[in-house]
Amino acid sequence: MAITAGIPTAVFTMLSRKHAGTRMGLRCTKDLLCALTLLEAAGTLALMLYALLWEAGNLVDLPDKRIGFYNFCLWNDTAGELQCLEYEHLQVMGVSLAGMVLGRVCVYACLVFSMFYPIFAAHAKCTEEGEGWKVILIVLIIKMIMLSGGLGTFLLQTSQWIHPSDFTGGFLALLGAQALLLLQILTTIMYLNWEKHTHPCQSPFTEEALPIEI
After folding, report:
1. What is the chain's pLDDT, residue by residue, as a tens digit (214 residues)?
2. Rounded to an integer, what distance in angstroms lies between the CA atom of residue 103 and that of residue 156?
3. Are 61 and 55 in contact (CB under 8 A)?
4. Is 78 helix (H, G, I), strand (E, B) or coil?
5. What is the enclosing helix (H) or strand (E) of 59?
6. Could you tell me if 50 and 42 are in contact, meaning their C-beta atoms sit under 8 angstroms apart?
7. CA distances from 127 to 20, 27, 40, 132, 202 (A)
């Protein structure tokens, strides 16, 4: 029996099995991170759909007050009902029309991104394309900036008429979406760091690299 480089066959077998087990463990970790980020993306989309479509963008929806991206209604004591104000009235009250429109555009643009994001994420994250994760990280950061910036701009214009206890389900859903976006960013960063430290450390002991002649 001739053994390449004088190394016993048992050593090659042990190293090959160990390498196979390592690759399986790495694959499981990658699949887990992929599934986690897709679940986070689905949760973000569901919360944004609830807040911006089901709740019609209303951050405050009370019997005596309704304030949102498309509504600004205050209680009228004389009429005994909610009175929805037009943009001309809001400008007289000191509300910036440009600020409200900017906030609305940013938040709803984030919703559009979120609707197409899971498709791109499923392709990029569940393949071997490491560059796809970097692109996804950039997209997530942009979405986070758009959502938080749009919501903050809108609240800055309407804070005079909103108390912290007034917020209802739409606002809470947007806060939840922001939290999930942050989790997605952290998960993506964790994957990129994991890939950076594990990819260069692949074992060279494979059947192709170490042929055995008997």
Report:
1. 444 444 455 544 554 444 444 454 445 666 677 778 888 889 999 999 999 999 999 999 999 899 999 989 998 888 788 888 888 888 888 888 888 899 999 999 999 988 888 777 766 665 555 677 788 889 899 999 999 999 999 999 998 899 989 999 999 999 999 999 999 999 888 878 877 766 554 444 444 444 444 4
2. 10
3. yes
4. coil
5. strand 58-62
6. no
7. 19, 11, 18, 9, 18
